[in-house]
Write a structure and sequence with these properties.
Helix content: 55-70%
Oligomer: single chain
């Protein structure tokens, strides 16, 4: 079994090895070291395949690696011996295999006779296959001992970040490590030569554009295919204001802010008409915008000189020193990339970054959390465009001439590929992706005839092996690889199955140390609390008043002349059959739907016509019938998004890390932890929302709504899918919300035990209209309600 698995992996390794030999990567440009690396990888692959199929001993894993190396080395050696024999006998194989020359065969044979060299190649590949299997076993052993994770590059980066925080506690500046990295980048270029400085400069310009598009696509989830338009705007702005084109020489340093401003303004102009578009439609519209800018550069000859382009663009100068070499431009580009990465990181780790990610996850829910999605979408477009404008300005100055053909659709596709290849939403991934996508083709110029073929093959292999990207963001890595450890628990809850009791949750369960053996005592307690309140609530002021609210969808009247009063401090319920219009009425209150007629007054002010985010900020929060969390954000991040409408967003302060911005973020973090504890999710703040159990997701959704500091909470079927024990806990929790947080609660619920157990008043809807209203006792005895909804078994709920 072990040998068979190794042979299979050996054939895979052989195919790749022969491919590299044929295109010259194993001979002309690098020698056999690349073939050894492939054999090492093949040995690890063989051991991995054997270990994944069943539990095997160490010697069997080594045998699998040896089988891989033997097959790869044997057939590769046979191929080399055959080619060497044919060439020695005068056969010309170059018309079939262009790179198979005598020098290539000699390189594969280590400069020895073809027989000796072929045997050496076989032996070295066999050894590398065994070493690959050994390395794989070592990695598994380290991982089992908790050490393996430390050798992964992204984790090392996090460890470096932790080290910088530790240094800061001891008085060492936190910026020391990034400063040392920047210093190293400034020291290396003089030793690379003109050609590689030019190549790295091109890579750096794409890094600038990649960082900008990463904001738009990676953070905010807005697919922009016409991104090259902003690059062109920045380039033409600098070209026309710093050349003989208009006989204006404003200078590079003065024109760059203008170019960035024009590009950002263009980003806002693009964003306004596409605010309601997403996905494919947004991609098509932005693609059209990019083509419009390119065509304008061709046709507006009086401004752009059309196909002739803008010539004689002046390079920057500083203190009389002119930037007239690839080396100096590379320094300028490195510093620009460093500043762009710094700004991007600050935005990502701020309330602005959380707002963008929330919009990407679920735009409607983001609005319900108080996020002005229009504002933050435009901010994303403007930020991304500004980075592209800076890249365009540097590009124009470095090239000293620009033409419309410099700004084709292919540039946008390249930038999009960079962030996909490097890792969506990852700042280091943009840098690595740019090096791979822009720099690697230059490395492969030694095999000019096959470089695109080799390049494509490497891309395909990479996307198969690492679909999340070369250096994925931590969030993206968790999306694809974090195990859903509580999935089975979630499924049990969804179908209402009983499951083992969990430990007591702070703020969620009663203060007593023992659990009740049955939910009945809790229902009785809730009923006793309910019966003592209505007399006091009758004299409390009306917090929400709806009069004549109507909503019509085509020929269907979903809400028909509906009236309701909700008193401050009350728990009031809306019940009715499915399709009665209950959730539609919630959507009208929270601004998701516009009422066709009627009025809604909340806290003395009309709210119909207000946007959803403004209604949330005014004091109305809600949950949803089907749980709608931000699934790929952690539990803590979900709650912090809920506080967004209460934060004071200061963009300069966020970028500069002002004391006020840090204090605001610290308060949001503390409140997030407090609410996690309150709803019983202490210790789960770093868990992705989608990996929580069903009951925990319900609690998290309520905690997120509470984070908005509402005056009134709208709960849409909060106990749906819960078992009796969880339902009893939720009843008590809802009652405690009123007393502990001074909340008014409006509830939609189908479980009559919940409705009759905790409600002060109940309103019944049927076909969009109100058919009854009163205390739970009155509703249970109402003949019309019994006929339309409750049924003959209604009397069984009177006792709770």
């Amino acid at each position: 079994m072990a040998l068979k698995t190794g042979i299979k992996a050996g054939f895979i390794t052989l195919v790749v090895s022969v491919f590299f030999v044929l295109i010259g990567l194993g001979t002309v440009t690098g020698g056999v070291w690349l073939l050894w690396l492939l054999a090492l990888a093949g040995g690890a692959l063989g051991a991995r395949n054997l270990a994944s199929s069943s539990s095997r001993t160490s010697w069997q894993l080594v045998l699998a690696g040896a089988g891989t190396g033997a097959v790869d080395g044997l057939l590769l050696a046979a191929f080399t011996w055959l080619m060497g024999t044919l060439i020695r006998r005068g056969a010309d194989v170059r018309h079939i295999l262009f790179n198979m020359t005598e020098e290539a065969v000699s390189s594969l044979c280590f400069g020895q006779d073809i027989t000796v060299g072929s045997l050496l190649l076989l032996g070295s590949c066999l050894l590398c296959g065994i070493l690959g299997a050994v390395f794989y076993q070592g990695a598994i052993l380290l991982q089992q001992r908790g050490i393996g994770a430390q050798i992964r590059i992204p984790v090392l980066v996090r460890q470096v970040g932790n080290l910088s925080q530790e240094w800061e506690r001891h008085g060492i500046p936190r910026w020391l490590l990034p400063g040392l990295g920047l210093g190293a980048l400034l020291v290396v270029p003089p030793f690379l030569g003109t050609y590689w400085n030019q190549v790295l400069g091109s890579v750096g310009i794409y890094v600038l554009m990649g960082l900008g598009l990463n904001v738009v696509v990676g953070f905010a989830g807005l697919l922009d295919i016409g991104y090259v338009a902003f690059f062109a705007i920045g380039a033409y702005t600098l070209g026309m204001l710093n050349s003989p084109h208009f006989d204006i020489y404003l200078g590079f340093w003065l024109v760059v802010p203008i170019a960035i401003g024009f590009a950002a303004f263009a980003g806002i102009l693009l964003g306004i008409p596409v605010l309601r578009m997403r996905g494919d439609y947004l991609a098509i519209v932005t693609l059209g915008f990019g083509e419009i800018i390119r065509l304008l550069s061709l046709t507006l000859v009086d401004f752009t000189h059309g196909p002739q382009g803008v010539l004689k663009i002046q390079p920057p100068s500083l203190w009389g020193f002119k930037f007239d070499s690839p080396l100096l431009f590379l320094y300028l580009i490195i510093i620009s990339c460093f500043l762009a990465a710094f700004v991007t990181r600050r935005l990502h780790d701020s309330p602005i970054g959380r707002a963008w990610i929330a919009i990407r996850e679920d735009e409607d829910v983001a609005r319900a959390m108080g996020i002005n999605t229009t504002r933050y979408k435009l901010m994303a477009f403007a930020s991304g465009a500004a980075f592209a404008g800076l890249g365009g300005a540097i590009f124009a100055s470095r090239q000293t001439a620009i033409f419309p053909l410099d700004f084709t659709l292919f540039v946008s596709i390249n930038v999009l590929c960079i962030i996909i290849l490097g890792g969506m939403g990852s700042i280091p991934g943009v840098i690595v992706g740019s090096l791979f996508l822009i720099g690697l083709p230059e490395v492969l110029r030694g095999v000019q005839e096959y470089r695109l073929l080799a390049y494509g093959a490497l891309l395909v292999i990479m996307m198969i092996v690492r679909p999340e990207g070369l250096w994925p963001a931590a969030r993206r890595r968790m999306e694809l690889h974090e195990p859903e450890t509580e999935g089975s628990e979630a499924e049990d809850a969804a179908v209402g199955q009983a499951r083992p009791e969990r430990s007591r949750r702070v703020g969620y369960l009663p203060s007593s140390s023992s659990r009740s053996p049955s939910p009945a005592p809790r229902r009785e307690q809730a009923e006793r609390q309910r019966t003592t309140r209505p007399r006091t609530l009758r004299h409390s002021r009306v917090l929400l008043e709806a009069r004549g609210v109507t909503k019509i969808f085509g020929g269907l009247t979903a809400v028909d002349n509906f009236d309701i009063e909700v008193h401050q401090g009350a728990i009031e319920s809306i019940i009715g059959p499915n399709g009665a219009g209950k959730t539609t009425f919630f959507n009208i209150i929270t601004g998701f739907y516009a009422a066709d007629k009627g009025t809604i007054i909340f806290d003395g002010k009309p709210i119909l016509g207000l946007s959803t985010d403004r209604i949330t900020v005014s004091g109305i929060a809600r949950t949803f019938q089907n749980i709608r969390l931000f699934p790929n954000m952690t539990a803590l991040e979900n709650i912090m998004v809920g506080r967004h409408g209460l934060l004071k967003i200061n963009l300069p302060g966020i970028i500069l890390g002002s004391r006020g911005a840090r204090a605001e973020e610290s308060r949001a973090l503390d409140e997030g932890h407090r609410l996690l504890n309150f709803v019983g999710l202490a210790g789960k703040g770093d868990t992705l929302a989608r990996n929580l159990s069903y009951g925990d997701q319900r609690r998290l959704e309520i905690a997120r709504a509470l984070a908005t500091e509402p005056k009134m909470l709208l709960l849409d079927e909060p106990t749906a899918g819960m078992n009796p024990q969880e339902t009893a806990e939720m009843m008590e929790f809802i009652s405690n919300l009123r007393t502990q947080m001074n909340l008014t609660i409006l509830l939609i619920e189908h479980d009559m035990r919940v409705v009759m157990g905790i409600s002060d008043r109940v309103t019944v809807m049927d076909y969009g209209a109100k058919i009854a209203e009163g205390t739970p006792a009155e509703i249970q005895s109402n003949p019309r309600v019994i006929e339309a909804y409750l049924g003959r078994g209604a009397t069984t709920w009177k006792s709770g």
